[in-house]
From TrEMBL:
This is Transcriptional regulator. Pfam families: HTH_34. It comes from the Bacteria. SUPFAM superfamilies: Winged helix' DNA-binding domain. InterPro entries: WH-like_DNA-bd_sf, WH_DNA-bd_dom, WH_DNA-bd_sf. Residues 22-100 form the Winged helix DNA-binding domain.
Length: 105
């Protein structure tokens, strides 16, 4: 017998952490590359440094994003990259979104 509390609607495949629009945009940007500089992600997603920092911290805590700090010459840099778990969750989240859109059409 099917558990009535465990539905089959594709929305159950959405990830709550990743679903927030800014976090989803960050992950989508990172999914296209091996890693990206903080400033590139900030400019692509069109948010401030502080907003990006907060959202990246949430994604990092969830295990979806790895943050690496270093230098280019004497200038400090921060790079962001999806973890394997982040990539897998992004793929599953996108599949759920497509299934929801397909069911609505």
């Amino acid at each position: 017998m099917t558990d009535p509390h465990q539905g089959t609607h594709p929305r159950h495949g959405l990830d709550e952490v990743m679903h927030a629009p800014v976090r989803f945009s960050i992950v989508a940007t990172l999914a296209a590359a091996e890693k990206a500089e903080f400033a590139f992600v900030r400019d692509t997603v069109e948010v401030s440094d502080s907003v990006l920092s907060r959202q990246v911290a949430t994604l990092e805590k969830a295990g979806y994003v790895a943050v690496t700090k270093g230098y280019v010459g004497k200038r400090p840099r921060t790079w962001l990259a999806l973890t394997p778990a982040g990539r897998a969750t992004f793929t599953a989240h996108c599949q759920a979104l497509r299934a929801i859109a397909r069911d609505a059409g």
